[in-house]
Write a structure and sequence with these properties.
- Helices cover 13% and strands 33% of the residues.
- It is mainly beta.
- The strands form 3 sheets. Strands 3-2-1-4 form a 4-stranded antiparallel β-sheet, with no helix packed on it. A 4-stranded antiparallel β-sheet has the order 6-7-8-11.
- It is globular.
Length: 191
């Protein structure tokens, strides 16, 4: 969401400019949608009002690969001449939709590893979308079977991944937010 934030858009520091929001330009795969619904009951990311007093409401930021609106607090809403938006406070109220979904088992069979967590997401380059993130918990697999633990670094470009034809969501039992099956560089070793 940082790349869709009002300050990044207003200052021209990100990959997207204000004119792209609400236009017909497709910047991601045409089946990608990203929205937030802070009114979902009993979720950690639910709320009635932002800290600035903006009433919570469902908000779509990306639809069919097009930028609909940036994430805006009151200050940047004024600067950009738009209404303030809902702000995502927890992943359980964020909805990524569109790319075909795989089960965990299907994803393990189709990949060489599962990255369970990454550190330093805030270090992603805002303008280019490039990232290089420490991945301290990786599970390696071969022929659909888990073969051991790794740790290392993953690197790539977030925007390229969201445009890639082979992007897939991975649904995990008991989890609301899907994982993503993507191709990126992995430099790993056994701990």
């Amino acid at each position: 969401f940082h790349n869709l934030g009002g300050s990044v858009v207003d200052h021209g520091e990100g990959a997207f400019c204000a004119a792209q929001f609400g236009s017909d330009e497709t910047v991601f795969r045409d089946d990608v949608a990203l929205r937030v619904d802070p009114l979902v009951p009993l979720r950690s990311g639910s709320y009635r009002f932002t800290p600035e007093g903006v009433a919570a409401e469902p908000c779509t930021f990306v639809d069919r690969g097009r930028l609909i609106r940036p994430v805006l607090d009151r200050k940047y809403a004024r600067r950009l001449g738009l209404r303030p938006t809902a702000v995502p406070y927890g992943y359980d109220t964020v909805h990524l939709e569109g790319p075909p979904s795989l089960t965990e088992r299907e994803a393990v069979a189709a990949s060489t590893c599962t990255v369970l967590s990454v550190l330093g997401v805030h270090t992603q380059d805002r303008a280019s979308g490039d990232f290089s993130l420490s991945a301290p918990q990786i599970v390696a697999h071969r022929d659909g079977r888990r073969t051991g633990r790794l740790r290392g670094t993953i690197a790539g470009n977030l925007f390229a991944l969201l445009r890639a034809d082979d992007l897939r969501c991975v649904r995990f039992a008991g989890e609301h937010t899907p994982g993503l099956l993507v191709r990126c560089r992995l430099d790993a070793e056994r701990p």
